[in-house]
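Appendix B. One record, verbatim.
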Amino acid sequence: MNKEEYKKKLDALGLDKNRYCVISGGTMLLYDLKETTEDVDIKVKPDYFEELKTKFKFKKSPKYPYLWELDDETEVAVLDFDDSDVIIVDGYPAESLELQLKWMLEHNRPKDQKKIRTIRDCLSCRS
């Protein structure tokens, strides 16, 4: 999905923009570092997840112990996070590129190598 489709999907979820942040490919999409992404990945704090469980039916993801699936296109990471690591991009809360890069480097997945270079290039241009 492109950026506009992604934002429509986020809006349709009706989430409190003060209580989640976009992560993974969505972060890069919002920052205009890629043109499309395959799914919506967000991060919520555990207390907000408890509230969301009354509104949505989640399925445990086999990928990571903290990851839940809302539907075929939406994954929710249930993790505490520092609000200072969230930047508003196009009106949506997104994880900072610095934190996104840190996660990618820690996991060092082959599929993230190009993204790592893209984020590094972007961050070096900002300096």
